Amino acid sequence: MAKQVNRRDVLRLGAAAAATGLRASASAGEKKQEPVRIGVVGVGGRGTGLLRLALKAGVEVPALCDIKEAHLNRAIGIVEKARDGRKPEGYSKGPKDYLRLLQRDDLDAIICGTGMQVHAEISVAAMKAGKAVLSEVAAAMTLEECWDLVRTQEETGRLYMLAENCCYLPHMMMLENMIEKGLFGKITYAECGYVHEIRSLGFDGQGKLTWRGEMWRDYAGNLYPTHDLGPVARCLGINRGDRLVSLVAIQTRSDAIYDYVNKRFPADHPARKIRFKMADSTSVLIRTAKDVLIDQRCDMCSARPAFGAYHAVQGVKGCYDSRLKSIWIEGRSKGRKWDPQDTYAKEFEHPLWKSLAEKAKGSGHGGIDFPTVYSFLEAVRTGGPSPVDVYDAAAWSSIIALSGKSLAEGGTVQEIPDFTKGKWETRKG
Ligand SMILES: NC(=O)c1ccc[n+]([C@@H]2O[C@H](COP(=O)([O-])OP(=O)(O)OC[C@H]3O[C@@H](n4cnc5c(N)ncnc54)[C@H](O)[C@@H]3O)[C@@H](O)[C@H]2O)c1
Questions:
Q1: How far apart (Å, rounded) are the C-alpha atoms in residues 42 and 110?
Q2: pLDDT value at residue 30
Q3: Cα-to-centroid distance, 64 and ligand 1 (Å)
Q4: Distance between CA atoms of 63 and 75, rounded to whole angstroms?
Q5: What is the C-alpha to C-alpha distance for residues 37 and 18, in angstroms, rounded to an integer?
Q6: How far apart are the C-alpha atoms of 296 and 369, rounded to whole Å?
Q7: Are residues 174 and 345 in contact, defined by beta-carbon separation less than 8 angstroms?
Q8: Cis ω on the peptide bond leading into residue 109 (within 30° of 0)?
Q9: In 279-368, where does DSSP find H-type helix?
Q10: Mutate to test the pocket of ligand 1, among 64, 211, 298 (most ligand atoms within 8 A of CB)
Q11: What CA–CA distance (Å, rounded) separates 260 from 61?
């Protein structure tokens, strides 16, 4: 009988294939020997980066879509160059033109690299059209969209992966490994945040709002929850033995964005009149079914040096903090002194990173974009399970809508739906 392939196997298989340049290498599941054929919807900064990685991995790209012709033409040029002049067909007739691309029967999968507001709509349509989906983060803006993604994935059986590259951070994969081996004891608390000053990305060259700026204008809440919560949720076994149960949100004033606007745009510029719902900092406290507390912060506009996502966990026997790049384990660390996290790499580094480190170098975000794309392609090829599946995508992304609702109601407690419908208690992998 064929061995059942789980998520961890997929990571390893992806690593093996990537390291050797082989295409299909799984021992189970449906295999595809030809190059995977992908279309990319949204070829701005991120979509183009993912396209380049996919091309490097050997995919065919029959079609591309973007509402901005300049972006589309740039991406078509990249594919043409990489594929000896074979030109992909371009789709650029408005925001629903991706539907025409999805009608093609020469695509196995799509990568969705648009702004967040349309990820769910495009992903749902793609799965209904029989395509596998790699969706950029976050998966969805509303609870209805989260449910729609889950329902559609279950009904169609198509592969859906959230491109949460922070799940591939080497130190977070090592931490997951160490927690599984019991080094920290039971985990009681986690702290995480996306604290990344990106105010300039809210506006284009003329001062018009980009999709990010529109999101900051239209929504309150933690609007970018997956880079920090995702890896922490993996460490806690969320949707695999535990689950997110409820949250409460609280926020600061919105001063930093206006400070920026006032400095950048003259007094009569229309940007000066825009009112933003997003606060400078939003804090969300999340409780899990096993009474773990997750303390999460999002801040995209406060002035500060470059940073990004941070992650910390506290267990009964030890703790980890990515801001200190340090680990402390009772009985193992000397006295009360932190150990540099790298001290543990030799013994606990995840097997994926052992085989991938060289290949991943320079692939973007410190190398984590490479395993994200490879793991997806490997899952498409093998018919294997999704490395970051629709239940994770829905649970992590639901923080956007629920933190917004909590804030709107003056800090009420919001229940987080069980998107697995009870399967979380026994799910593995
Ligand atoms: N994982 C990461 O590290 C990471 C980093 C950056 C961005 N992102 C995510 O990637 C996505 C894109 O971000 P970006 O910085 O590249 O933005 P961007 O504005 O540069 O690119 C978005 C592209 O989508 C196109 N688009 C919008 N609506 C469309 C539609 N209906 N059909 C076709 N094309 C459409 C736009 O014209 C644009 O070219 C976002 O979801 C963001 O959260 C992730």
A1: 10
A2: 52
A3: 14
A4: 10
A5: 17
A6: 23
A7: yes
A8: no
A9: 345-348, 351-360
A10: 211
A11: 40
Distance 143 CA to ligand 1 centre (A): 21
Contact predicate 257/276, CB 8 Å: yes
Token digits of residue 160? 């859906």
**66 C-alpha to center of ligand 1: Å?**
10
* pLDDT (tens digit per residue) in 125-143: 999 999 999 999 999 999 9
Whether 225 lines ligand 1, by a CB cut-off of 6 Å, is no
Measured in whole angstroms, the distance separating CA 157 from the mean position of its chain's CA atoms is 21
Phi/psi for 298 (5° steps) reads -130, 130
Residue 340 bridge partners (DSSP)? 326
pLDDT in tens, 150-194: 999 999 999 999 999 999 999 999 999 999 999 999 999 999 999
Q: Does an H or E element contain 294, and which?
A: strand 293-299
Cα 48 versus chain centre, distance = 16
CB of 214 within 8 A of CB of 117? yes
Q: Which atom of ligand 1 sits closest to the CA of residue 49? A: 16
Q: Going by CA atoms, what residue is nearest to atom 21 of ligand 1? A: 44
How far is the C-alpha of 208 from the C-alpha of 243, rounded, in Å?
40
Neighbours of 76 (CB within 10 A): 19
- Angstrom CA distances, 297 to 75, 119, 172, 323, stand at 35, 23, 18, 14
Kind of pairing between the strands at 60-65 and 37-41: parallel
Tell me the mean pLDDT in the region 351-366: 76
Q: Are 268 and 207 in contact (CB under 8 A)?
A: no
CB 356 within 8 Å of CB 372: no
Angle made by CA atoms 376, 377, 382, in degrees to the nearest 5: 100
Distance (Å, rounded) from C-alpha 370 to C-alpha 361? 8
Domains, the chain, ranges and CATH? Answer: 7-165 (3.40.50.720), 167-351+390-425 (3.30.360.10)
The answer to whether the CB of 194 is under 6 A from ligand 1 is no
Residues 6+ apart with CB under 8 A from 45: none
Distance 261 CA to ligand 1 centre (A): 22
